[in-house]
Amino acid sequence: MKCPYCGYADSKVIDSRDVNEGIRRRRQCLGCRARFTTYERLQPAGLFVIKKDRRREEFSQEKLLSGIHRACEKRPLPTGAVDKLAVDIEAQLYQSGRSEVASSVIGDMVMAGLKNLDYIAYIRFASVYRDFADITDLKREVDTLLTGEVALPPGTSQLPLIPAEEPMAITGSQRRRRR
Ligand SMILES: [Zn+2]
């Protein structure tokens, strides 16, 4: 590691500690004695996505995130919920230890996550990902969500369009009711 100040090639480690999933080292240049910090992180093994047409593509966190973001656009979701879903899915994929994963597996993970988060986002994602042929397919998917109504506790007459843990959505409907 070259010194960022003088370019000297040698430095000594004066302190090192574990941070998150890496190691942070304080170093001192043996040439100019300036101090600088380096981080050491484990490079995740390559993960490849096998697409429907059998093409292989390197897994991209950006693509995963943008796909989820697109489905959640303008939905009243808690801050960070979308990013968290992407991060969780990525972590699960890496933890599984495999080097290849079918795009359908990732799609299913996103669908499962969105189903817990927001039905509208779920349907949006499903309509692109499942490639609904027509409105009948779409209706079938919506119907499976609505049949979940049966499982709701007594007193809940209607399946909420948006899961209850979304504070913004609740305030919105309450405001409407009071008017
Ligand atoms: Zn130096």
Described by strand count, sense and barrel closure, the largest sheet is: 3 strands, antiparallel
Mean pLDDT: 80
| Strand arrangement, major sheet | 1-2-3
Number of helices: 6
Question: Are there runs of 5+ residues with pLDDT below 50, and where?
Answer: 150-160, 162-179
Radius of gyration: 24 Å
How does this model look, in words?
The chain has 179 residues and is an alpha+beta fold. Helix content is 43%, strand content 18%. It is built from six helices and six strands, in the order βββββααβαααα. The protein has helices at 61-72, 81-95, 103-117, 119-129, 135-146, 167-178; strands at 11-19, 22-29, 35-41, 48-50, 56-58, 100-102. The strands form two sheets. A three-stranded antiparallel β-sheet has the order 1-2-3, with no helix packed on it. Helix 1 runs antiparallel to helix 2. It is elongated. The chain starts with 10 loop residues before the first strand and ends with a helix. The structure holds zinc ion (ZN). Residues 3, 5-6, 8, 29, 31-32, 34 line the site of zinc ion. Zinc ion binds at residues 3, 5-6, 8, 29, 31-32, 34.
Quick synopsis:
The chain has 179 residues and is an alpha+beta fold. It has helices at 61-72, 81-95, 103-117, 119-129, 135-146, 167-178; strands at residues 11-19, 22-29, 35-41, 48-50, 56-58, 100-102. It is 43% helix and 18% strand.
Keywords:
three-stranded antiparallel beta sheet, binds zinc ion, 179 residues, 6 strands, alpha+beta, elongated
What's the structural blueprint in terms of helices and strands?
Blueprint: E1 11-19, E2 22-29, E3 35-41, E4 48-50, E5 56-58, H1 61-72, H2 81-95, E6 100-102, H3 103-117, H4 119-129, H5 135-146, H6 167-178
Helix pairs in contact: 1-2, 1-4, 2-3, 3-4, 4-5
